[in-house]
Amino acid sequence: MTAADTRTRPASRDGAREPRARGRRPVSTSPFFTSALDGAPHWAVGALTALQAALLSLLVLVLPAIAAFVATSADPSNADVGWVRAVRVGAALWLAGHGVPLHVSGVTIGLVPLGVTGLAVFACYASARRSGSPTASGFVAGVASYGLSVALVAGVVAPADLARAVAGAVVVAVLGLGGGLLRRPDAPSWRETSRPVWSRLTPAVRCGAAAGLLAAALLLLAAAALTLLWIVAGRATIGDVVRGIGVDGIGGFVFAAAELAYLPNLVVWALAWLAGPGFHVGAGTHFAPGEVAVGPMPAVPMLGALPTADFAGGAARAVPVVLVLVGALAGWYVHRRLRSTRWTTVVAAVATAGLTTAVLVLVLVAAASGSAGPGRLAEVGAQAWLVGLYTGAGVLLGAALVAVPTDGAVRSGVLRAVRGVDGEEPRVRVRARGVVAEAPVVAVPVGAEADDATPARGAVDPQPDDGDQGLEPRDADPAPTDEGQAAAEPTGAPDVPGAARPGKPLPGEPGQSRTASRPPASPFAVRTRR
């Protein structure tokens, strides 16, 4: 009998399973989502889940460091290096992914390796998706447990940066554990969880925020493709740097791991390059579509992929048009999802899309920038506020070019304004006696004397024209007598379908019941001039 079978509720006599008591977490029917933590208190499940995530992400970095130590332990130059130091190096790199500065041989590196941050977030997500408890107590206990785990490691490796370690751990745990718990089969959907927040926002703001998130994701995808192009174009320079360093297989593995840790930073720098302001790697350097200024840089193979002068000037100056194109896609999303009744609605949605994209890009660029050492390397990355401003403006322009002209409310307002300026009367399409034509709309009071006025829809014309095929209403006909009715209805006449009968109106004739149920007329009626 499996563990899942032992946790199954007993069945009643008729074979139906008894309802589970309120407050207990339902057992999933999928074996993948069942674990040994099922049945424990929610806070304990959350704490153990976060501890599992912290250990997994830490071991991913510590074990390769120990392996590198074992592989190089026979070297006489490493005689004074113990395995504890290898563990501290791996732990320091893990803390760097949580925002703790990395101290290497007296050099402080404040540049956050976003690859390690992504690894920690994914470990939290996978652990919570596997065995988390989608409750408030489980989530809070998980965040607290993860923060405590990071604080313990920071207290041993970098006690001076304990506050930054805890702050970074909270951010990682909220993103990873929160996303994983929402993906549990027994968890409420993201829409239900965030209802107290988005229900207070207008539909225009909600649609614009979603469009801004879509634009930011598309820009990151374009930046990743550009980074791949840079790596392919600079593969020869990367090879020269690796041969110049002269590292062996173990050293090459360590370099490769470090470069993978900082590869997402290069992708964000490529996003800054697409936006136009560009980025810098040390003082005196600048990489932008308009210019490339290269200065002395450290011997790091990844830096060999930075754009050269061939990627600057000429057609490269038009690269920021990508922002407008991505904004156009966001504007199309707004056009498809938003139902506006006023022109201000679509304008608010477009403005929200541009603002959301600017804020997201600003946060990413700020996280990918920092200090890579003393002196010239004190500033590496891009100016977050400038890149965010350029990105938001480009997305706003593209979204406005697509969403605003295609909005029905905007077109109607512009059409009314143009007709008001030109002095033209608004016209309406009317159908009279099988002919469709346009006629100006004139508002006149009900009962006004107008010989050329056409009766309103459903009204009875007391004196129809000779060409009209209408009939007088039945109320205007005198009541037929018995003799007149007998004379008008000959005996033995065949019953022809559709033929007129006394007492029954012809098809299309206005009846008394239809006019009696008509709502009262408005103070003004709309008539047309033929």
TrEMBL record:
Transmembrane portions of the chain: 43-70, 106-126, 138-157, 163-182, 203-233, 253-275, 287-309, 315-334, 346-370, 382-404
Region called Disordered, residue ranges: 1-27, 446-530
InterPro entries: DUF6350
Keyword Transmembrane helix: yes
UniProt KW keywords: Membrane, Transmembrane, Transmembrane helix
Biased composition (Basic and acidic residues): 1-21
Protein name: DUF6350 family protein
Organismal lineage: Bacteria, Bacillati, Actinomycetota, Actinomycetes, Micrococcales
